[in-house]
Specification:
The protein is an alpha/beta fold. It contains eight helices and nine strands. α4 crosses α5 (152-163).
Length: 243
């Protein structure tokens, strides 16, 4: 494995939550005007540290609400940490919310170019890869239909096909291998393995312990925003299973 490309150093992230149990915006405004609005600090992440080396496949596991998706958003610079810092040595392609840039009034074809541009791909790159994107998505003639006519599974297949077309240096994946039916999931997994074999550094959040064991070199286990364990993926996964 190569040099450290992601260095998470003592990262904490807090959110302010109103503790007055205000039910709506009107209640919040009334309490604020009366000077009675109170907040509590909620730690989404608390003193999290780990390193990812170049070419590594690094897993992130934990229960719902443990901070898995939050740490990916901090690394992707969507959230800024309240304390600590993250150093990332190479460009990152985050696949966190597939299809977040789609326009449902446009056709699948038009959305390939729209979503691809948002991911930083050039018009020429998308034109050159268009047939490959459509073939991988298995949408066929539906590519010329408005996105609002697609099922959610079809939308996700198109989003994954666009996002995985590049060969990124660092790829961040949040549960994206659960897209579509079983056959498409296997094809998605094979595409990810290709990227990994090509030297891409991968940070992977998944609920599948088997994926952690079979695909990852190292892993971190987050529990209520804190690091419970970090190390060899199989050892971390087995400790998590046996807790």
């Amino acid at each position: 494995m190569g040099n450290v490309v992601i260095d998470v150093k003592n990262v904490s992230l807090t959110f302010r939550m109103n503790s007055n149990k205000a039910q709506n915006l009107k209640d919040i405004i009334v309490l604020k005007l009366k000077g009675q609005l109170k907040y509590e600090e909620f730690y989404a992440l608390n003193d999290v540290s780990f390193q990812v080396n170049e070419g590594e496949v690094f897993g992130v596991i934990g229960r719902n609400g443990s901070g898995k998706s939050t740490i990916l958003k901090v690394i992707s610079q969507i959230y800024k940490p309240s304390k600590g810092k993250v150093e990332v040595a190479k460009p990152v392609v985050p696949m966190l919310e597939l299809g977040s840039g789609f326009d449902y009034e446009l056709t699948g074809r038009e959305n390939v170019f729209l979503n691809g541009a948002l991911l930083g791909y050039s018009q020429k790159f998308l034109e050159d890869r268009f047939d490959e994107i459509v073939a991988f998505s298995e949408l066929g003639e539906f590519i010329n239909m408005p996105l609002k006519t697609y099922s959610s599974g079809m939308q996700m297949r198109l989003a994954f096909s666009i996002a995985s077309m590049v060969k990124p240096e660092i790829l961040i994946l949040d549960e994206v291998l659960a897209v579509g039916d079983a056959a498409f999931q296997e094809k998605s997994r094979a595409r990810m393995m290709e990227l990994m074999d090509g030297g891409t550094t991968v940070l992977l959040v998944t609920h599948s312990i088997e994926q952690i064991k079979s695909m990852c070199d190292k892993a971190v286990w987050l529990d209520k925003g804190r690091v419970r364990m970090v190390g060899c993926a199989r050892e971390v996964a087995e400790a998590y299973e046996n807790m």
